[in-house]
Write the structure tokens for this entry.
Amino acid sequence: MAKFYYSTTKQKVLLLLVAGLALGLSRSPRHQWRILTGLPKALKDTDRAVLNRILHEFHRERLVDFRIEKDGITQLVLTELGRKRALRYKIDEITISIPLRWDGKWRIVLFDIPERQKKAREALRSKLRELGFVQFQKSAWVLPYPCKNEIDFIVEVFEIRPHVQYLEVARMTNDAKLKLHFNLS
């Protein structure tokens, strides 16, 4: 799994595209004005030449496709590769909210990811650590807070669904150290 380094402007453009923003390109000033007035502030602040260059780079990288409509407007469509790249940016924003009161359940992520997907395995470990999980065993990580949706998203982005299990456990022996670590009573 390659790590992608993009400028924040490129990230904003890609994330706005994945959010469903329809960008159109036209030579007609009237069409251009209609498109520009509908853009979010994040793109309005971007120099038009820079935006154009970014969109053409995305096209060369096969992240977007250009489709010409009957009225002469060129529509920009995010490809599957573009959606995957945008999801990789969103993964950096994931956090797990801590409830006011612990429900008494442990969330355990177990995985057995093959060697050929070593980078995905290391990325998962790193993300679990970043989210506050504690390593219980080599491929078993524990957290006391609900996080199923977040784990599902991470597993999809890293494309490791068949190799990861998510458990919610009401009782676990020898959990005193974990309770102490998470300040639970």
Confidence is low (pLDDT under 50) at residues 1-6, 21-27. DSSP finds eight helices and seven strands in the chain. The beta strands are 24-25, 64-68, 74-78, 106-111, 134-137, 140-143, 164-169. The chain has two domains: 8-91, 98-181.
